[in-house]
């Protein structure tokens, strides 16, 4: 274990994951935070999955505790923030990892129900977690918020609701960064590109009826840097940097972690 987050209290929202061959962004980030000395609250709608993450952290000697919550419910967000503050005395880092894209499509075929569900999870959920964490961080005069967006927010993709909701995450990040700088709070976003995670590979292959290996090969071929997707550990290490004091003069940044995909706009 390192010490870049020694003595810090971090909340990772979306610390569980869907089943798959690899590790997801939220779980990897929670593990990295714990390895670096943070006490980590593991928030997920699937409590059993959050407890799996907790078990992995404890096996490495880290400290964490799981909490069940649905981020689209304000009462749940208020409750887990209150629990963390009462249990740990403070909140130093909020890492917002929850996001979905299931049911998305172009404007003609996208249903109203899918639009509403994607926006509720991807954007409303981040608004609600921030809403309830910010008063704690303002009182402390310190804190870090990291929102997981996507390069889909700035690149051309065929999924309208996901792209638009993630563009909203970028705008939310900018607004919160400038609005809370005076309180000593930093707010940044990570924009992952194509990642080899269970939500991406198992989820998309199932939705498209496509063999996983063929999907992996197709996604790898789109990445400029080495023609290979990133992993959840790439996102986790970017999150660690933004959460640490090494990034103490960085706020309002949208950081691509994408092997150069978004650089194609140049």
Describe this structure in words.
The chain has helices at 25-35, 47-59, 74-88, 112-140, 160-180, 198-208, 212-220, 232-243, and strands at 9-13, 39-44, 63-68, 93-96, 143-148, 185-192, 254-257. It is globular. The protein is of the alpha/beta class and 266 residues long. The mean pLDDT is 96. It is built from 8 helices and 7 strands. It starts with 8 loop residues before the first strand and ends in a 9-residue tail after the last strand. Helices cover 45% and strands 15% of the residues. Strands 3-2-1-4-5-6-7 form a 7-stranded parallel β-sheet, with helices on both faces.
Features:
globular; 266 residues; Rossmann fold; 7-stranded parallel beta sheet; 15% strand; alpha/beta
Structural topology:
Layout (H helix, E strand, L loop, with lengths): L8 E5 L11 H11 L3 E6 L2 H13 L3 E6 L5 H15 L4 E4 L15 H29 L2 E6 L11 H21 L4 E8 L5 H11 L3 H9 L11 H12 L10 E4 L9
Parallel strand pairs: 1-2, 1-4, 2-3, 4-5, 5-6, 6-7
Helix pairs in contact: 1-2, 1-8, 3-4, 4-5
Helix content: 40-55%
What string, H for helix and E for strand, traces the elements in order?
EHEHEHEHEHEHHHE
Strand coverage percent: 5-15%
Reading side by side through the largest sheet, how are the strands ordered? 3-2-1-4-5-6-7
Tell me the domain tally: 1
Total strand count, please? 7
Structural class: alpha/beta
CATH topological fold name? Rossmann fold
Give the low-confidence spans. Answer: none
**Terminal-residue CA separation:** 40 Å
Main pleated sheet: 7 strands, parallel
| Envelope shape | globular
User: Roughly what is the average pLDDT, rounded to an integer?
Assistant: 96
Q: What's the CATH C level?
A: Alpha Beta
């Amino acid at each position: 274990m390192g010490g870049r987050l020694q003595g810090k209290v971090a909340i990772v929202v979306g610390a569980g994951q869907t089943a798959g061959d690899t590790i997801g962004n939220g779980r990897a980030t929670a593990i990295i935070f714990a390895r670096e000395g943070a006490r980590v609250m593991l928030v997920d709608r699937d409590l059993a999955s959050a407890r799996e993450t907790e078990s992995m952290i404890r096996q490495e000697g880290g400290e964490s505790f799981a909490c069940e919550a649905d981020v689209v419910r304000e009462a749940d967000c208020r409750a887990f923030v209150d629990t963390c503050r009462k249990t740990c005395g403070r909140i130093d880092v909020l890492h917002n990892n929850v996001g979905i894209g299931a049911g998305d499509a172009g404007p003609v075929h996208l249903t109203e129900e899918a639009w509403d569900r994607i926006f509720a999870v991807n954007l409303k959920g981040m608004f609600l977690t921030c809403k309830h964490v910010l008063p704690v961080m303002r009182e402390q005069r310190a804190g870090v918020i990291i929102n997981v967006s996507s390069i889909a927010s700035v690149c051309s993709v065929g999924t309208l609701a996901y792209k638009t909701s993630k563009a909203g995450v970028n705008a939310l990040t900018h607004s919160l960064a400038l609005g809370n700088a005076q309180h000593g709070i930093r707010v940044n976003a990570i924009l992952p590109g194509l990642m080899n995670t269970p939500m991406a590979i198992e989820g998309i292959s199932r939705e498209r009826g496509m063999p996983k290996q063929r999907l992996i090969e197709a996604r790898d071929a789109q990445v400029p840097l080495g023609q290979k997707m990133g992993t959840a550990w790439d996102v986790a290490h970017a999150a660690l940097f933004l959460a640490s004091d090494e990034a103490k003069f960085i706020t309002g940044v949208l950081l691509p972690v994408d092997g150069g995909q978004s650089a194609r706009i140049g």
